[in-house]
From TrEMBL:
NCBIfam families: sarcinarray
Protein's name in the database: Sarcinarray family MAST domain-containing protein
Species this chain originates from: Methanosarcina mazei (Methanosarcina frisia)
Top-rank taxon, per record: Archaea
TM stretches of this protein: 103-120
Source taxonomy: Archaea, Methanobacteriati, Methanobacteriota, Stenosarchaea group, Methanomicrobia
Keywords: Membrane, Transmembrane, Transmembrane helix
Length: 122
């Protein structure tokens, strides 16, 4: 396997058995580590699941899905993954989202159109 399960409810080669799940939404998470040679590549990750009613051999629900083009990063993180927050833009700092930008663009566009109209009218 190109991955090693660092943390999660099961290893990929193992089955995970839950005795009972109450109705609701459940989230299962795995932290994976790429094995040597797979870092920096893209490959699909296939997930397969099935649910059985208690005492039944046949699954009540089963399915599978693929995460296509999963990129295997060659970056390694320890601890929590950093969260980047947007820094507020000061009044003196120019910004593409500044309130003055659209007005300047509109005024510039109108000026160019008036100039073009005047030149072609002659």
């Amino acid at each position: 396997s190109p991955y090693e399960v660092v943390e999660g409810p099961s290893k990929f080669s193992e089955k995970k058995h839950f005795e009972s799940l109450d109705p609701g939404v459940y989230t299962f998470e795995w932290i994976l580590k790429a094995n040597e040679g797979w870092e920096g590549w893209s490959m699909p990750v296939n997930f397969w699941y099935q649910l059985h009613e208690k005492g039944e051999d046949e699954p009540a629900v089963k399915g599978e899905f693929t995460v296509a083009y999963c990129t295997i990063s060659n970056e390694h993180y320890k601890g929590e993954i950093p969260i980047f927050e947007e820094r507020p833009v000061s009044e003196t700092e120019s910004s593409p989202t500044s309130a003055s930008t659209p007005a300047f663009t509109l005024a510039g566009t109108i000026s160019i159109l008036v100039l073009a109209f005047a030149i072609f009218r002659r």
